[in-house]
Amino acid sequence: MHNVKRNPQTPEALAEKNQREQSKIIEFLTLTEDVLSRKKKQEWSNDAFELTQRLLQINPEFYTVWNYRRNILLNGIFPQSTPEQINDLLSNELSMTTTALKANPKVYWIWNHRRWCLENVPDGPERNGVPSMEWRQANWDKELFVVERMLDADARNFLAWNYRRYVLANMPTRRPETSELAYTSRKIGANFSNFSAWHQRSKTLVGLWESGQLDPIQSRDDEFELVSNALYTDPDDQSAWIYHRWLIGSGENKAQLEREIQLIFELLQEQPDSKWCMESLVHYKRLLLQNHSPDSQTLKQECVELLSRLMDLDPVRYFRYQDLRRDLDQ
Amino acid sequence: MSTSLVAPLHVAYIRALGDSKNELSYHLSAHLRMNAVYWGLTALLVMGHGDALDRDEMIDFVMSCWDEEAGAFGAHPDHDAHMLSTLSAIQILLMQNALHRVDVDRVVKFILSLQQPSGVFAGDAFGETDTRFLYCAVNALSLLGKLDKLDVEKTVAYIRRCRNFDGGFGAVAGAESHAAQVFVCVAALAILDRLDEVDQPTLCWWLSERQLPNGGLNGRPEKLEDVCYSFWVLSALSILGKIAWIDSGKLEAFILSAQDTESGGIADRPGDMPDVFHTIFGLAGLSLLGYPALVDLDPVYCMPASFIEKLGLRKGWKALQRRTS
Question: Known catalysed reaction(s) (chain B) (predicted)?
Answer without folding.
Answer: geranylgeranyl diphosphate + L-cysteinyl-[protein] = S-geranylgeranyl-L-cysteinyl-[protein] + diphosphate
